[in-house]
Specification:
By secondary structure, the protein is an alpha/beta fold. It has helices at 5-15, 31-42, 57-65, 78-85, and strands at 19-22, 47-52, 70-73. It has four helices and three strands, in the order αβαβαβα. The chain has a three-stranded parallel beta sheet with strand order 1-2-3, with helices on one face. Helix 1 (5-15) packs parallel to helix 2 (31-42).
Length: 93
C-alpha cells in the first residue's frame, strides 16, 4: 500500500511484485504515470491492473496506452479478481 503515486512507484521498484493494483486517481502523480514508470522498469515481470472508478472507453484506452494489462472498475468483485488472476486456494496436489 502506498499513500501516493511517487511512493507507489518506489515500493514497486523496491519489491518487484508479480501483480500491482494501481488506482488511477492518486495524489502526486496519477496512476497512469505510475503504471508507465513501473512498466518501464519492470517490463513484463509485473501484471499491472488499473483499479479505478473511471470506466469510460477513453479511461480503458488510456490505461492500456500507459502499459496496464487490465482495467477493473470499482467496485471489484471476487469474480472479477478470479477471472483476472485465476482461483486462489488449496490445490489437490
Amino acid at each position: 500500500m502506498a499513500r501516493d503515486g511517487p511512493e507507489g512507484v518506489e515500493i514497486a521498484l523496491a519489491t518487484g511484485p508479480e501483480v500491482a493494483f494501481i488506482d488511477i486517481g492518486l495524489p502526486g502523480i496519477d496512476g497512469y504515470e505510475v503504471g508507465r514508470r513501473i512498466r518501464a522498469a519492470l517490463a513484463s515481470r509485473v501484471l499491472l491492473v488499473a483499479l479505478t472508478g473511471y470506466g469510460q472507453e477513453r479511461d480503458h484506452r488510456r490505461s492500456s496506452e500507459a502499459g496496464f494489462d487490465a482495467h477493473l472498475v470499482k467496485p471489484v468483485t471476487y469474480e472479477d479478481l478470479t477471472r483476472l488472476l485465476g482461483p486462489v486456494g488449496p490445490t489437490d496436489a
